[in-house]
Amino acid sequence: MILPRNNVNSAExxxxxxxxxxxxxxxxxxxxxxxxxxxxxxxxxxNQYGPHAMxxxxxxxxxxxGIILLVLMxxx
Length: 76
Known about the structure:
The protein has 4 helices and no strands.
């Protein structure tokens, strides 16, 4: 069953939360993330580059996890 586009909000099973407050930054992505703090932007969405910082954080965690697994495979 396809619902009409104007009735999407009432058909959602999980209601959307309000967007977090953030400050628009006029500088580039890397400068904005470094000015507001990497973890603050990634976890608290302090500026408009929150999703970008979260993807970078995901890459860092995946790399660290891969290195740990590689070391453990070499040891055992």
